[in-house]
Amino acid sequence: MNILVIGDVVSSIGCEFLRNVLPSFKRLKGIDFCIANGENSAVGNGITPFSAQYLFDSGVDFITTGNHVYRRREVYEMLDERDDIIRPANFSKGNPGKGYSVVDMGFAKIAVINLAGMVYMDRCDNPFKVIDEILPEISDCKIKLVDFHAEATAEKGAMGFYLDGKVSAVFGTHTHVMTNDARILPNGTAYITDIGMTGPKNSVLGVKPEISIEWLKTGMPARFDTADGECILNGCIIEIDNRTGKALSVEPVTIE
After folding, report:
1. What is the largest CA-CA distance in the chain?
2. Is it true that domain 2-255 has CATH number 3.60.21.10?
3. Whether 68 is catalytic
4. Of 92, 204, 227, 246, most Cβ neighbours within 10 A?
5. What's the CA gap between 195 and 235, in Å, rounded?
6. CB 19 within 8 A of CB 256
7. pTM, two decimal places
8. CA 49 to chain centre
């Protein structure tokens, strides 16, 4: 099975670029299942029912999120009602949404788990302990995919090795910059520290450079307006053996 995972989609400009390139790319590469991180897909940050549905209509099969998932209240009902959009499992259990979901493809079941890191991030439960609680509940799924939405590379790397052989893939999101460490770990788990971003290429994590520079120089509050111009889509294609759940290959993707 070929699974495409797509880095954080930024605002309407990222959504539009994804719609322009994703359908033909999926056909070209024979993609069976596509996951995108949509926590920044709404204009002005967060995710809304409109931006989520836009991604689904553009060819995304499943949406993961992160620390900005609750920025827009209008998405709360959608998080509760749908099984194809999730929030980090280690957020408080009473919060809207669910932290993992199982998709039955007929020939295989795919479990998608969303986790948030603890380092430099919003308050959340320990992701290592939470994943230990989840894995027994999805033991009938051969294919298990983990979006680890975290800031620190060390925390992401530790999670990759912790889950090596227990899940099919661990891919990092949140930092918006693709890392050059895509590989298969010793026990068969595909890993990459961060799969990057889908949005304006000439930007600081999607924001207009001049705004980011002024904010960092002065420390004064700033409105982080999304940059415009040429876009880029980052992600990875992960080939997985349906019978064993082991990763066979992992291929970084950059579309400009």
Report:
1. 56
2. yes
3. yes
4. 227
5. 5
6. no
7. 0.95
8. 17
The answer to whether 98 and 133 have CB atoms below 8 angstroms apart is: no
Q: Can you give the residue ranges of every domain in the chain?
A: 2-255
Of the candidates 68, 149, 174, 176, the residue annotated as catalytic is: 68
Looking at residue 106, its amino acid is G
Distance of CA 230 to the CA centre of its chain: 22
User: CA 217 to CA 50: how far, in whole Å?
Assistant: 35
Q: How far is CA 121 from its chain centroid?
A: 16
pLDDT digits 0-9 by tens, 31-65: 999 999 999 999 988 999 999 999 999 999 999 99
